[in-house]
Every structure is written in structure tokens, then in C-alpha cells.
Amino acid sequence: MLNKSSSSILSLKKPKNSYLSQSTKHNMGIKSKLIMPAAKWTANHINKWAERAVEDQDKIMMKLVSKAKNTKFGKDHGFENIKSYEDYKNQVPIRDYEGLRPYVDEVVNGKSDILWPGKPKYFAKTSGTTSGVKYIPLTADSMPNHMNSAKSAMLNYIAESKDASVFDGKMIFLSGSPELSQKGGINTGRLSGIVNHEIPRWLKANQLPSYETNCIEEWEEKLEKIVDETLMNDMRLISGIPPWVQMYYERLLERTGKSTIKEIFPNFNLFMYGGVNFEPYRAQLESLIGERIPSVELYPASEGFIAFQVNQNEQGLLLNTKSGIFFEFIPVDEVHKEKPIRLKLDQVELGKDYALIINNNAGLWGYSIGDSVRFVSFAPYKLVVSGRIKHYISAFGEHVIGKEVEEAILNVANKQNISIVEFTVAPQVNPADGSTPYHEWFVEFVDAPKDMAAFSKSVDLEMVKQNIYYEDLIKGKILQPLKINKLKTDAFRSFMRDQGKLGGQNKVPRLSNDRKIADKLNKYID
Fold first, then answer.
1. Lowest pLDDT segment from 155-169, 354-368, 380-394, 484-498
2. Runs of H (alpha helix) within 68-142
3. Are residues 297 and 328 part of one domain?
4. How distant, in Å, are the alpha carbons of 15, 138, 232, 355, 519 from that of 512?
5. What H or E segment, with its residue span, contains residue 282?
6. What CA–CA distance (Å, rounded) separates 78 from 92?
7. In the chain, how many domains are there?
8. Tell me: the pLDDT tens digits for 406-459?
9. Strands 483-486 and 438-445
């Protein structure tokens, strides 16, 4: 089940082979032939706005400010006097959800013209680690960002591959329930469920599972129904978070007795995903499928659709610079400062990690979504997700981030031909035996290393390469080398089930700066 968000730094590896050079061709039906002109137009449109990224970003900032100047937030922050980005930075501080919550609460209580003119069309309901339930506004102005971006990613791939045959069969989008509740008179639900209500009619005919099945909350019950509905269909496109797609594949094989997904769905030829890093799952998923098939990576979030993959053989995801979002970037070592350095798109550097800040036409202003990103290209502006700002270990000042632990263990695992299901890391500050503190890893393997001590040592050496502060702590004997606990089969699924978080959009944090997850995983140690 291993893993962001979706485009990880690990996807910087150049693909071993090009999907587009493969000789397999698909006969296209009427619908796919009708789609092809729209796909070509979309690809050309993307290329054009990608070339004007900086110019468009400057225009979007001023357009957002102008439209929201008469809202409560706009009046409180002097929007009418903002004439430049420097003015904007001086007037609008960086906030997380808690910082913006007083305004959101007013919207939730039914008030208009608070963060954006009028009222939101929806609230995307999410669970925050520090804020409890969060209500992220989605407006009529911001919904096209969510819907058109996913559509553009798909159509761009079709234009690139010259293959629209996915539209001649069925598509499955593994998502949360589309059932909506009311909050302050506003339809409220999970983003993936809300999106189900916005899918155009012409595409719904291809979509599975049924609305009734999608409404099932209990994941394992829902999975059985999804298998029932898709088993005898001509599945062409499968989309979802990799660990939950893996569970779907495994159940299909169990039910049919087949060896590979390709035996069940011979025309399956596109995988779309987001939410977590795909690389740690790739080997296992390709083994289940029976071959490597083309994939398109997306970077969606409740706060906005950030980026998407536009080329099968190049690094990174294209930043969505013309879709109602003005982006800012804070160097990760500045994040916790009272007045951090804030940069707009033309001020960032390649290869540096930045906290991602969005300002959008749903009324989020100076809003930190909690992700760190790294640019890999400026022509066009492409990035990878390097981690979560809130998911780190710095119990001793090392500030280890997600991409460092992922790279460390995967570099070793790939060299030793070892497959990993999932892992998480936490500090052990007070070992029971009174020894020196260390980083404690909890790893579920497909096939465990024959020599766990040697594997652990190799991972520790990789961590030393990844993080200079970790290296100093190891050399100074402030930390002893990391320790890896081998977990039982299905440990993480059992853990997520016990927490009531199996399925949906839930993910296991790769890093924690405390022992909350680690202590609960102790009972799964093999």
C-alpha cells in the first residue's frame, strides 16, 4: 500500500521506456473519434497558457483582489489599495485553516460576501490533524478549476498518445460518497463526492460505479459492490489513490482466480491517480496488472487543483497557472518564521523546496495547504511534490521531510529488489533500555530482506546522504542509527480499519514528529 499528492520527487526518474513508442494500437469507436478534435484543441490551449504563466499569474492576482474588494475580508485587508504584489504581501498575511477560520465560520453560519462575493456553491469537508473538521469553500467561480483541470489532463494525454479509446469503454473513479449534507444552507461533502455531481452527462454514461454503490460509506462493503459492477464490464480507465486501487485489483483477482488485471480487463489502457506518490506502489501494481500501462498523475486538493502531468516522458507536473489561483511560495526553512520570505512564480529557483501558498476565487487568501513543492522546469513551470509541511521529524533539529525518507528506503529497496507495502517513521526520544534516541521505522514488506540489520544500515546511510542535519546528529552520537520494525502482513490496512479510515481519500502519514501513530503500530510488529 505504499506511497504524494500525488507527483513525488521520486518520479524524477526518467521512465525506462516510452509508452508512446509502444506499437500497440487501439481501434477507436464513434465517441472516441468525436473526442479527438477536442483533445487536440485542449493540448494546444495548454501549451499556449503554459508559455504565459508569469504574465497570467500577475493578472490573476489583481483580478482576484478586484473582485473581492467589497467582501468583509477585502475590506479588512485594504484590497482597494493593493496595486502590486508587494502591496498584497503587506496587506495579507500567511494563514492556515485556523488562521482563516473566523471568516470561514461566518460563511458556515450563512453570511454572504465574507471571503468571496455571495455564498459558496459547496463546502468540501475534510479532516485536519490540528483543526478537526475543516470546511473548504468551493464557489461557482472555483468549480471550473476542479472540473476542467482533470478533464484537461485526460484530453491532453489523448492528444499526446493519439488514442481516445478509453471513451469506448467504461471508466471507474474510486472516490468518496457523493451524498451531501447541509452546512449553513450550503451543500457539503467530500471533494471527490462533490465532483461526482459535476461530471457532465456525456461522460456519466461511461462512469462506474453506480451512484448507489458510491454512496456506501463502509469501504470493504463498497469494494465488494464495485467489484460486482465492474467485473463483467469493459474497463478502459481506472482512477484513484494507489493504495485503494491496489485493494480493488487484489479483490478482482481473488474473485476471478485470474493471474492479472489485464486478463480481466484486456482493454484497460490508462491509470489516473493522485493523492500519494505512485513510485512506491508501482512495482506491486504493475505486477497485479501484468504489465506497465500509461498513467497520468494529478495534483488535486480540496483548496484547488494545483497541477497535472502533460508529458509521459518528462519530469514533473505542469502548474495550473491560468485557473483562478494565484500561487505563492515560501522557502521551507522560512515556514515557521513570523514574517517568512514570500515569492511569486518568477522569483522561485529550480531544485529548492517551497511551501505552497494559494489565493483563489473561492476566497482562500495567503492560504498554506501544507504541501512542499520543488520546481524541476521553468519552460514550462513544472514541479513535483516533495512532502508535507506538517509531516516531518525534527525532535532533535534534523527537520527530516517526506521526500528524504521515501528516497532513502526506495533507493535501498530498488537496489536489493525488495518490495515495500507501506511505512511510517517516528522519533524514539526515550528508548526503554535507556540508550541513545533514534528514528524508529515501521515497515510492511511484500518480501522482507533476508538480512534486516544490513538493510537497516543501508537505509541509515541513505538518510545521512539525504539530510545533513541527520548526518551531524549521527556523527555526534546524538542519535544512534535508525531501527526498522518489520510489520505483519496487512498491518497498515488493519491499522487504518481500526482507526475507521480504511478507504476513501485517507492516507497513512509518512512521517510524524510524535509517537501517536508509532505507539498504535507496536501491536502489528512481526
1. 380-394
2. 72-76, 85-91, 97-108
3. no
4. 31, 30, 42, 18, 11
5. helix 279-289
6. 9
7. 3
8. 889 999 998 998 988 899 999 998 888 989 889 999 999 998 899 999 999 999
9. parallel
CA-closest candidate to residue 50, choices 307, 273, 302, 301:
307
User: pTM for the whole thing?
Assistant: 0.77
The predicted-structure confidence for 54-103, as pLDDT tens digits, reads as follows 999 999 999 999 999 999 999 999 999 999 999 999 999 999 999 999 99
Match 450563512 to its residue by C-alpha cell.
110
Beta carbons within 10 angstroms of residue 454's beta carbon:
12
Residue type, 51: E
Residues 88, 155 within the same domain: no
Q: Which is it for strands 304-308 and 317-319: parallel, antiparallel or unpaired?
A: antiparallel
Q: What confidence score (pLDDT) does residue 1 get? A: 39
Both 104 and 149 in one domain: the answer is no
Phi, psi of 238 (to 5 degrees): -125, 130
d(CA 525, CA 171): 38
- Residue appearing with cell numbers 491496489: 246
Share of the chain above pLDDT 90, in %: 62
Q: How far apart, in whole angstroms, are the C-alpha atoms of residue 164 and residue 473?
A: 53
Is 264 in the same domain as 344? Answer: no
Residue 359 and residue 482 in one domain = no
* Closest to 351 in 3D by CA, of 373, 366, 329: 373
In a domain, 11, yes or no: no
CATH of the domain at 179: 3.40.50
pLDDT at 505: 58
- Who has greater pLDDT, 511 or 505? 511
Which one-letter DSSP state was computed for residue 188?
A: E
Are the C-beta atoms of 388 and 416 separated by less than 8 Å? no
The chain-wide mean pLDDT, for the chain, equals 88
487 strand-pairing partners: 525
CA–CA gap between residue 275 and residue 505 (Å, rounded) = 8
CB contact at 8 A, 19 and 161: yes
Residue 474 pLDDT exceeds 50: yes
Residues 199, 289 within the same domain: yes
Q: CB of 426 within 8 A of CB of 433?
A: no
Residue range(s) defining the domain that contains residue 199? 143-301
* Residue 145 grid coordinates: 478549476
The per-type count for the chain, helices as H runs and strands as E runs, is: 18, 20
Distance (Å, whole) CA 144 – CA 94: 25
Sign of the alpha-carbon torsion through 197, 200, 202, 206 = negative
Neighbours of 385 (CB within 10 A): 29
Does residue 21 form part of some domain? no
Nearest to 322 by CA among 40, 139, 49: 49
Give a yes or no: residue 164 inside a domain: yes
414 part of a folded domain: yes
The CATH number of residue 474's host domain is 3.30.300
Task: Give per-residue pLDDT as tens, 375-407.
Answer: 999 999 999 988 777 667 877 777 787 778 988
Do 92 and 116 lie in one domain? The reply is: yes
